[in-house]
Specification:
6-stranded antiparallel beta barrel, 9-stranded mixed sheet, aminoacyl-trna synthetase, ATP binding, 27 helices, 37 strands, tRNA binding, Elongation Factor Tu (Ef-tu), domain 3, BirA Bifunctional Protein, domain 2, 1000 residues, EC 6.1.1.7, Threonyl-tRNA Synthetase, Chain A, domain 2, alpha+beta
Length: 1000
C-alpha cells in the first residue's frame, strides 16, 4: 500500500466518523515563539486543548508535516531516526475520550483492506498503558477484547506524553505490532522494541504542566478545562509495516532517493550486512542521511524556509550540508542535489502537489546553497585535514579551539562539521575554547555596534548610572512633556560630568522621560530639555543597556548641571509622523500575511517620519498585482477608521488572542499588545496613532530583495504619501500637456515614443556600421609588409563603439588573403575613452604571432586575454595608443621584456609613458589589506594591487577572474570564435576613467 493511499484511508476513516479534515500547518511554527518547527500533530490545536480558543469543531483529523532535530546526529546511524516525518492524527476537544479513541484506532488498524482499513492482524497487536490507568486497560480488555497478557503497564518515561515544554499533557496508550521472531525475542514491548514496533500513540490529554525538566520530571499545574484526545500515528512507521519493509528508509517515499544516491556513488545499500536495517556500516549510514536530509530540505524550502546562519534557516543549512558532505564521503565530487532533489519531488508530489508546481523556486535555493557549500568545503577541508594530521603526528587527542575558530571565522567552516570530521578521525575538539573565542568575537562586535551608536564602547558609566538610580521610567505613551530630574550627566565620550556649557555634546539620564528610545524598528524622539537657565536639544535617544534611557544632546543655551530638575518636551510633530509609520507597518505586515500566507513574517523594519521600510520572509518576489491589492486593502482599513488599542497582558493571553510574536524576540511574562480593531494584533512596544484613519494615506513605493528569501517593501505615509502622489500627478499632467492627450493616455504615448526611438537607434546603428565597414576592403588592400607580415593600422570613425571597432578589425582581417600572415590594429575614441583592438589571422598565429602576447608585452601584462583578439582601454587623460606605426617588428615587445624582466621601463605601445610592470604590491581587500603571499591570488578573490615600483601611486581595486583575466564563459566563447577580449575591472588611479587596460 502506497504511503499516499495510507494517508487517504486514514483521513477517510475519521471523516466518516464525524471528524473535520484539517490541512497540515506549515512546518515553521509561526504562532509559537518557543518552537522552530511543528514537531507533533497536535501543535496547531494547542489553543483548543488549553481552552484559550473555542474550536470550530469537536472532532478533527489531519496528517501533519513535522520536523524533529534534537537527535539529528543520530539520523542514519539507526533505521528509526528521521528528521522529517508525517503524523496521522485524530483529535477530540471535549467530545469522546478514552473509549472512543481506543475503539476508533482498533477499528481502522484491523479492518480489512477491502473495507477501507489497514488489515493488520489483531492477534499480533499489543497495547501499553500508563501504570495506574486502569480505565484504559479495562477498555482494551473488555471492550476491544485484547488478552491481558498483551496489555503492558509502563511508567512516565514511556506512557506519559508532553511536548517537552509547558503545555497540555496526559497519560497515553500505545499500539505495537509483533513483526515475528526474525526481528527479535518474544516477550512484548518491554523485551524488544524492534520486534514489537510501536505504530500508534493515543494521548488522553487531561492536564496542563509546567517546569518541564525531563521526560519524567515536570509539574502538573491543573486539569484542563475539558478532557481531550490527541493521537499520533507515524505515517512512515505504519507505511513500513504495510509495505513489508524493515524501516522508514525503505518505504516508497524515501527508498528511490536512497537508491539514486547509491547508484551515483557506486554503492549498494545493505551490501555489508546480512540485514541492512540492523547494521550501521558507514556507507549505509551516509546513504540514509542523504535520503532523509534531501527529503527534509525539499519540504522545508517548500514551506518557505531558506538557508541562513540563524534560526530555522540554520537548521536547514545544517541538514543540507550533512547530505552534501555524505555524498562526497561516498566518492561523489560533483553537485548532487540537481540529481537527487527531483527524485524527492517525484516521491512526495502525490501527497503534496504544490512541490511540483513550486519546484523551480525550491531548486534555486537548494542548488545555490550546494554550490556555496562546495566552495567552503574545498577551502576548509584542506585546512582541517592538515590540522588533523599535525595533531596525530604530535600525539594530541584533540584540535584546539583556536583551530576550530579559525576554520569558522576565516573559511566559514561550521563547527558542527569540524566536530563530525574530527570524530571520524578519532579526535576531539576543544569546544570550550571555541565557544570562548566566539563569545569574545560577539562581545567585540557588540561593543563596536554600541560605539557606533553612542560614540564610545565603555559601558561602565552606564552601568553606574543604572545602579545609582534604577531603571528609567518611560511615560511617552501617555504624555509628551514631563518634569524630570537630571540623574546623570556624561560627556560624548562617556566621562561623568557635573555641568556642561553651551556648545558641548553631552548625554543625559533622567529619572523619568517621555522620550522614546530607538528600538523595535522605530526611530527615536527628538526634542528639548530645559533645566534652569540652560537648554539642550536632544537629537538621539538610545537604550545602551536594558532599563537605561540615554538622551544624546547638545547644549544650545546656558549651563546644565547634574541633579537639577527641569522639563523634557518631545517634538510632537515628529512623534506623530513616526507613530503613523509604525501603525502602517503593522497593517502592511498583516495584509502581506493575508495575501502571501503565514510564512510572510517580519524580518526587520524601519519606522521613520512619513516613511516605513518593512522586511519580511517570503520565497519569491511579490507581483505588482499583489502589491496593488495589499496597498488597496491597507487604505481600506484606514477608511474604516478602526480604533488602535494598546494593553498589557500575559504572554499566554496574548497568544490566545492571536497576537503575532516574532521568532527570535525575547518576551517576558507580561507583554504589550497593540491591536488595530480586529484587523491586526501584534506584540509591540512602540508608539501608535489612536485610530487608523489618522494615517491618512499609505503609498507603497517599491518591493525588492535584500537577501535569500527576504523581501523589502518601502512606503510613504500621511502627508509624505500625499506629496508624492501630487508630484506624480503634476508630472503626468505635464506630459499630457506636451503630448496633447488626456492623462490616461500618457503611458501609451510614451511607449510609442520609446518604440520610435529604439527603431531610430537601430537604423542609426545600421548606418554607422555601414560607415565603419565601408572602407574595410580598401584598408585591407593597403596593408603594409612588416617583416613578412601584412599589417593594417587605422582609426575608426568618431563615435564608433567597442562592437564597431571589433567588427571593423574582423572585417579587415577577413579581407586579407588567409594564406598571408596578417596583423590588424584599430583604435577609436567613444564615451570619453580611447580603445585599441588588435587581431591576427591563423597564418600569423602559425608563425608564432599572438595579438594577446603583443599587447601584453607592450603593456607589461595589461592587454587582453585571447591570442587572437585582445582589447585595451586607455586613460582619456593620457595619449591614446598610437602603436601601429611605431612597431618595427612583432618581436620588439619580447626583446624589451627580455631586456628588463618583470618591468618595462618604456612600452613601445605608449611612447613617453612609463609602463606599469607586474603587480609589486598585492593585498587582500577583504582582510584589512593584509599582504598576500608571493603576490598570488585565487580566482574570485578581491584584491588591491599597486602596479608600479613607486609606492606613492594609488592602490587599484581588482577582482581576480581567471588566469587570463576573463570569465570562463568568455574564454570558451573566444576560443570558439577564434577571437577574444577582456573587460577591465580596475582603475588606473587617475580618477577620470573606469579602467586602464584588460584584466590582470
Amino acid at each position: 500500500m502506497k504511503t499516499a493511499e495510507i494517508k487517504r484511508r486514514f483521513l477517510a476513516h475519521f471523516e466518516a466518523n464525524g471528524h473535520s479534515v484539517v490541512p497540515s500547518a506549515p512546518l515553521p511554527a509561526i504562532d509559537d515563539p518557543n518552537l522552530l518547527f511543528i514537531n507533533a500533530g497536535m501543535v496547531q490545536f494547542v489553543p483548543y486543548f488549553l481552552g484559550q480558543r473555542t474550536p470550530p469543531f469537536e472532532r478533527a483529523t489531519s496528517v501533519q508535516k513535522c520536523i524533529r532535530t534534537p537527535d539529528i546526529d543520530e539520523v542514519g546511524k539507526t533505521s528509526r531516526h528521521g528528521t522529517f516525518f508525517q503524523m496521522n492524527g485524530n483529535f477530540s476537544f471535549g467530545d469522546y475520550f478514552k473509549e472512543g479513541a481506543i475503539t476508533l484506532a482498533w477499528d481502522l488498524a484491523t479492518k480489512p483492506v477491502s473495507a477501507g482499513g489497514f488489515g493488520l492482524d489483531g492477534d499480533k497487536i499489543w497495547a501499553t498503558a500508563y501504570l495506574d490507568d486502569d480505565e484504559a486497560i479495562e477498555i482494551w480488555h473488555k471492550v476491544v477484547g485484547l488478552p491481558m497478557e498483551r496489555i503492558v503497564r509502563r511508567g512516565k518515561k514511556d506512557n506519559y506524553w508532553h511536548m517537552g515544554i509547558p503545555g497540555p499533557a496526559g497519560p497515553c496508550s500505545e499500539l505495537y505490532l509483533d513483526r515475528g521472531p526474525a526481528y527479535g525475542p518474544d516477550g512484548g514491548p518491554d523485551v524488544d522494541e524492534d520486534r514489537f514496533l510501536e505504530f500508534w500513540n493515543l494521548v488522553f490529554m487531561q492536564y496542563e504542566i509546567t517546569d518541564v525538566r525531563s521526560k519524567e520530571d515536570f509539574q502538573i499545574v491543573s486539569p484542563l478545562p475539558q478532557k481531550n484526545i490527541d493521537t499520533g500515528m507515524g505515517l512512515e512507521r505504519v507505511a513500513s509495516l504495510l509495505q513489508g519493509v524493515d524501516n522508514l528508509y525503505e518505504i516508497d517515499e524515501v527508498r528511490p532517493i536512497l537508491d539514486t544516491a547509491a547508484e551515483l556513488t557506486g554503492k549498494r545499500y545493505g551490501a555489508h550486512s546480512g540485514q541492512a536495517a540492523g547494521q550501521s556500516h558507514p556507507d549505509d549510514v551516509r546513504l540514509r542521511v542523504i535520503a532523509d536530509h534531501v527529503r527534509t530540505a525539499l519540504m522545508l524550502i517548500g514551506d518557505g524556509v531558506t538557508p541562513s546562519n540563524e534560526g530555522r534557516g540554520y537548521v536547514l543549512r545544517r541538514i543540507m550540508r550533512r547530505a552534501i558532505r555524505s555524498m562526497r564521503l561516498l566518492g561523489w565530487q560533483e553537485p548532487a542535489l540537481p540529481l537527487l532533489l527531483p527524485v524527492a519531488r517525484d516521491c512526495m508530489a502525490p501527497s503534496y502537489p504544490e512541490l511540483a508546481t513550486d519546484f523551480e523556486r525550491i531548486s534555486q535555493y537548494a542548488y545555490a546553497e550546494e554550490d556555496a557549500f562546495l566552495s567552503t568545503l574545498r577551502a576548509g577541508t584542506t585546512i582541517l585535514d592538515t590540522a588533523i594530521s599535525s595533531a596525530k603526528d604530535a600525539g594530541r587527542a584533540s584540535l584546539s579551539g583556536d583551530q576550530a575558530f579559525q576554520l569558522h571565522d576565516t573559511y566559514g567552516f561550521p563547527i558542527d562539521l569540524t566536530l563530525e570530521i574530527a570524530a571520524e578521525q578519532g579526535l576531539q575538539v576543544d569546544q570550550e575554547g571555541f565557544r570562548r573565542l566566539m563569545a569574545d568575537q560577539r562581545a567585540r562586535a557588540k561593543a563596536d555596534a554600541h560605539a557606533r551608536k553612542t560614540g564610545h564602547a565603555d559601558l561602565s558609566a552606564y552601568r553606574g548610572a543604572l545602579d545609582d538610580g534604577g531603571p528609567v521610567q518611560f511615560t511617552g505613551y501617555e504624555e509628551v512633556t514631563r518634569e524630570a530630574r537630571v540623574r546623570s550627566l556624561l560627556s560624548a565620550g562617556g566621562t561623568p560630568l557635573q555641568a556642561a556649557g553651551e556648545g558641548e555634546q553631552i548625554e543625559l539620564v533622567l529619572d523619568v522621560t517621555p522620550f522614546y528610545a530607538e528600538g523595535g524598528g522605530q526611530q527615536p524622539d527628538y526634542g528639548l530639555i530645559t533645566v534652569g537657565d540652560g537648554q539642550v536639544e536632544v537629537y538621539d535617544v538610545q537604550q545602551p543597556i536594558p532599563g537605561l534611557i540615554v538622551h544624546k544632546a547638545r547644549v544650545v543655551r546656558g549651563e546644565v548641571r547634574s541633579g537639577e530638575t527641569g522639563y523634557a518636551e518631545i517634538d510632537v510633530r515628529r512623534r506623530k509622523a513616526i507613530s503613523r509609520s509604525h501603525t502602517a507597518t503593522h497593517l502592511v505586515h498583516q495584509t502581506m500575511r493575508n495575501f502571501l500566507g503565514e510564512t510572510a513574517t517580519q524580518a526587520g523594519s524601519l519606522n521613520a517620519p512619513g516613511r516605513l521600510r518593512f522586511d519580511f520572509n517570503t520565497p519569491g518576489a511579490v507581483s505588482a498585482s499583489v502589491l496593488h491589492d495589499v496597498e488597496q486593502q491597507v487604505n481600506e482599513v484606514l477608511l474604516g477608521d478602526l480604533e488602535v488599542h494598546a494593553f498589557i497582558t500575559s504572554q499566554a493571553e496574548a497568544r490566545r488572542l492571536g497576537a503575532m510574536a516574532l521568532f527570535g524576540e525575547k518576551y517576558g511574562d507580561e507583554v504589550r499588545v497593540v491591536e488595530v480593531g480586529d484587523y491586526a494584533r501584534e506584540l509591540c512596544g512602540g508608539t501608535h496613532v489612536a485610530r487608523s484613519g489618522q494615517l491618512g494615506l499609505v503609498k507603497i513605493l517599491s518591493e525588492s530583495s535584500i537577501g535569500s528569501g527576504v523581501r523589502r517593501v518601502e512606503a510613504l505615509v500621511g502627508i509624505d504619501a500625499f506629496d508624492y502622489l501630487a508630484r506624480e500627478h503634476l508630472l503626468v499632467s505635464r506630459l499630457a500637456e506636451l503630448y496633447r492627450v488626456p492623462n490616461d493616455q500618457v503611458a501609451e504615448r510614451v511607449e510609442q515614443t520609446v518604440t520610435q526611438l529604439r527603431d531610430a537607434e537601430k537604423e542609426l546603428e545600421k548606418l554607422r556600421a555601414q560607415l565603419v565597414l565601408g572602407g574595410a576592403a580598401a584598408l585591407a588592400s593597403s596593408a603594409r609588409d612588416v617583416g613578412g607580415i601584412a599589417y593594417v593600422g587605422t582609426e575608426a570613425p568618431e563615435g564608433a563603439g567597442g562592437n564597431d571597432v571589433r567588427t571593423l578589425a574582423q572585417e579587415i582581417r577577413g579581407k586579407i588573403d588567409a594564406a598571408r600572415p596578417a596583423v590588424v590594429a584599430v583604435s577609436a575614441r567613444a564615451g570619453g575613452k580611447a580603445s585599441l583592438v588588435v587581431a591576427v589571422n591563423a597564418a600569423a598565429r602559425g608563425r608564432g604571432v599572438s595579438a594577446s602576447d603583443l599587447v601584453k608585452a607592450a603593456l607589461s601584462g595589461r592587454g587582453g586575454a585571447a591570442p587572437t583578439w585582445p582589447r585595451v582601454v586607455a586613460c582619456p587623460r593620457r595619449r591614446r595608443p598610437r602603436c601601429w606605426w611605431r612597431w618595427k617588428s612583432p618581436c620588439r615587445p619580447y626583446d624589451a621584456r627580455r631586456r628588463a624582466p618583470g618591468y618595462v621601463s618604456r612600452a613601445p605601445l605608449f611612447p613617453r609613458w612609463r609602463a606599469w610592470g607586474r603587480p609589486t604590491h598585492v593585498r587582500d581587500a577583504r582582510r584589512g589589506g593584509a599582504p598576500i603571499k608571493e603576490n598570488r591570488a585565487d580566482q574570485g578573490q578581491m584584491v588591491a594591487v599597486r602596479r608600479s615600483k613607486h609606492d606613492h601611486l594609488p592602490l587599484i581595486g581588482a577582482e581576480i577572474l581567471d588566469r587570463r583575466g576573463q570569465s570562463a564563459r568568455r574564454a570558451r566563447k573566444a576560443a570558439a570564435e577564434g577571437t577574444g577580449g577582456a573587460r577591465g575591472t580596475h582603475g588606473c588611479g587617475c580618477g577620470h576613467c573606469a579602467c586602464w587596460g584588460g584584466d590582470m
